Amino acid sequence: MDQIDVVRTPASWVVVGLDNGGTCNNATVLDATGQYLVDQMVESPSLVTEGPKAAVEQLAEAFHGILALTSTPMTLVRAVGLDTPGPASAAGVISSQGSTNFSQLSWHDFDIRGALEARIGLPVIYNNDANAAALYAHHRHFGAEAPQRSSVAAIVGTGLGGGVVEDGKVVRGAVGMAGELGHVQIPLHGVLEEGQPVPRCNCGFEGDVESIASLTGITNNLLPYWLTRFPDHPLAQESIKKAAKLLRGYGEREDPLALAVFGQQAKAIGKLFTIAANFTDPSAYFLGGGVVEAAPHFRQWFLSTVREHTQLRAEQLAAATFALVPDLDMAGARGAAVAALEKVRGTV
Ligand SMILES: [Zn+2]
User: Fold this and answer.
1) pTM for the full model?
2) Could you give the residue ranges of the DSSP H alpha helices within 208-348?
3) Does residue 92 contact residue 102 with C-beta atoms inside 8 Å?
4) Rounded to the nearest whole angstrom, what is the distance from the C-alpha of residue 301 to the centroid of ligand 1?
5) Who's near 315: CB < 8 A, 6+ residues apart?
6) 81-136 tens-digit pLDDT
7) Distance between Cα 181 and ligand 1 center (Å)
8) Is the pLDDT of residue 190 over 50?
9) If you measure from the C-alpha of residue 309 to the centroid of ligand 1, how many angstroms do you get, rounded to a whole number?
10) Do 342 and 169 form a contact (C-beta atoms < 8 A)?
11) 220 C-alpha to center of ligand 1: Å?
């Protein structure tokens, strides 16, 4: 890529956003006027599998790298936003049981936020990746009205990540577990077929959103059931994991088995949004994840099916918006930067 064309230099003080993933970090810079200084992904290896020390060093590298790329002097940086996959506390301490991305024992209970703050000598503001994406979707969608608006975001991936934004801020909860929308149990009437086993989630719950609306839900629950209904389907020849990954391609080609599976996912998210409508009554419902990267006709069908199964009252229907999370691969870094900007603005 020709980065010269897409890189601006700062017009004011700035914040940096760092999105930490299983293989890569993505970095961005946001200035105080709300302008992102890069229009694309700026990636570098995350080395999370090598443990916390190497990974924090890589985050520091990504931080200094993005400053160099945008010709931003360190003196202009007021704060850094960091997001990682969960589960982690609101203060950025990785779960005591580790997680998919942070499986090494040295990661358990590791304060990644504090470690990065100590390493680079600037305040670091932490969010999990789904919350960061939700925050970015909210601010991008509402712009100047963001502080007066509320929204809910469901991000469909390996799991089902979520975020609840109220008055422009992520709702974190007492221990950072607010917005874990994947583990909200939903009414299954109208979602499951007659005789379909109740889906189970890795968290131990039955019939929560993630048990249906996630890649894990497809692999463990939906596909094994639907293959019994379509025994001659070509995916029956594949391993269940491979079949689950191939399913979106079939959905884009309007394959009946794939549409049955994704239809159930959309209905489940509709049930979740119906709960949200009666809980925080948000102005916007955002949908993100792999499905957003699918062919346009397919993602529009998915979003319409979600909307169709979200039961809103007439007043809510008139006020609410349904939209896809924009710039999904950059949403984490950008949302992390928004959180840092908001923090600085709140304290200056
Ligand atoms: Zn669960």
Assistant:
1) 0.91
2) 215-217, 223-229, 240-252, 256-279, 296-308, 314-319, 328-347
3) no
4) 26
5) none
6) 999 988 888 899 998 887 777 888 999 999 999 999 999 999 999 999 999 999 99
7) 9
8) yes
9) 21
10) yes
11) 13
